[in-house]
Amino acid sequence: MLTASQIRYLRGLAHPLKPVLLVGGRGVTPGVLKELEQALDDHELIKVRLSGGDRAARAGELAKLAESSRAETVQTIGHLVVLYRRNDEQPKLALPK
After folding, report:
1. pLDDT band at residue 54, thresholds of 50, 70 and 90?
2. Backbone dihedral angles phi then psi of residue 46, each to the nearest 5 degrees
3. Is 50 within 8 Å of 86 (Cβ atoms)?
4. What is the residue extent of each domain of the chain?
5. 3-state class of 23 per DSSP?
6. d(Cα 5, Cα 37) in Å, to the nearest integer?
7. Rounded to an integer, what distance in angstroms lies between the CA atom of residue 5 and that of residue 1?
8. CATH architecture of 4-84
9. Which segments of 1-97 does DSSP mark as H helices, in order?
10. Edge-to-edge strands of the sheet including 45-50?
11. Measuring CA to CA, how many Å separate 48 from each of 45, 66, 80, 89, 96?
12. pLDDT digits over 15-33, tens only?
């Protein structure tokens, strides 16, 4: 679990990032999950753009993404979601305590 200061720090780092994963109208597919795993391994902190649908549908897709990838949700704004998962083998980000 991330602390409040760690979340604040990660939100600051995520602000200039562009979405690296786009979840289309077909929702969360095995291909999307594979790309999510690769992006989290490579970057640790990523932005994901969820396509249309209502708020409840996007929340369901977000839950699937976070659960399947074991990632922490840092921030959700509209259709954008920031996810973080530490790479234990090659950490790239040093989080504050």
Report:
1. confident
2. -135, 160
3. no
4. 4-84
5. strand
6. 25
7. 12
8. 2-Layer Sandwich (3.30)
9. 4-14, 30-43, 55-69
10. 21-23, 45-50, 80-84, 72-77
11. 10, 11, 6, 23, 24
12. 999 999 999 888 889 999 9
Q: Hey, what are 1's tokens?
A: 């679990």
Query: How many whole angstroms from its chain centre is CA 79?
Result: 12
Which residue, chain included where needed, has tokens 């992006």? Answer: 39
Whether the predicted model's global pTM rises above the 0.85 cut: yes
Tokens of 35: 């790309």
Q: Give the count of beta carbons closer than 10 Å to the beta carbon of residue 53.
A: 15
Taken in order 19, 46, 80, 4, the sign of the CA dihedral is negative
At 42, the amino acid letter reads D
